[in-house]
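Exercise 7.
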Amino acid sequence: MSYKMIVLDLDDTLLQDDHTIAPRTKQALMEAQKLGVKVVLASGRPTSAMYDIADELELKEYGSFILSFNGAKITNCQTGEELFSSTLSPETAHRLYELSRREDVWIHTYVGDLIVTEAGNQYTNIEAEITGLDIFEVDSFIESVNEPVVKVLMVDAPEKLAEVEKTLQQELEEELSVMRSKPFFLEFTEKGVTKGTSLESLIGQLGITREEVIAIGDSYNDLAMIEFAGLGVAMGNAPQDIKDKANYVTDTNMNDGVAKVVEKFVLKTPQLV
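Solution. The predicted structure, written as tokens, is:
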């Protein structure tokens, strides 16, 4: 099979634990792009928090794309044009705030390039560290969110958030997409918006078939694109139920897992240890 696109989650997939790209992985991806393969970044991160990585991989020069906010935005790296954008109304964000109070978990969203929350907490701090965005603590979440937002996150300890996820997936299944991107991040986007649906839209515009796509990820918000792609790959550090639904399981993000997929299926080079 000749693959034309590699779609990559960032945290715990493309990136090592220190948020850098391993040299072997970068080399493999640059070689793939020289062969004409599109390398697409797909993350729950805001778009602005993905540009540095896109620049490092020279996606602008190779005419590639960013799927940000779990697929709620598609951006052309070469032109800066948004090919797709999905938002939640202020009223929906306010309702999610009320649900967060009911479930006794923290909540935040994005206004411009700021993370907006009523109360600082360790999990929102992690989001700020990952994205490089500043936290803006407000007196009233509802009063501060008066324009559409791309997504909303509820955050808390993993065991608590797992129960909240079950409750709200059932309660909101007809209205919103609800999924965890990390054990302590529960994300809400417009109904039907996932990395998988966003990827389907993108390849439709490019004339690429799903069979020609490799999608690699490690978490539950990656599952839709893993299941959609012709070759859906789970990282070695992914939960077992993600691995069970993938076509192929690679090594971990700390042991060149992405590079090993690219070398095996795209570059077709002898496998190194």
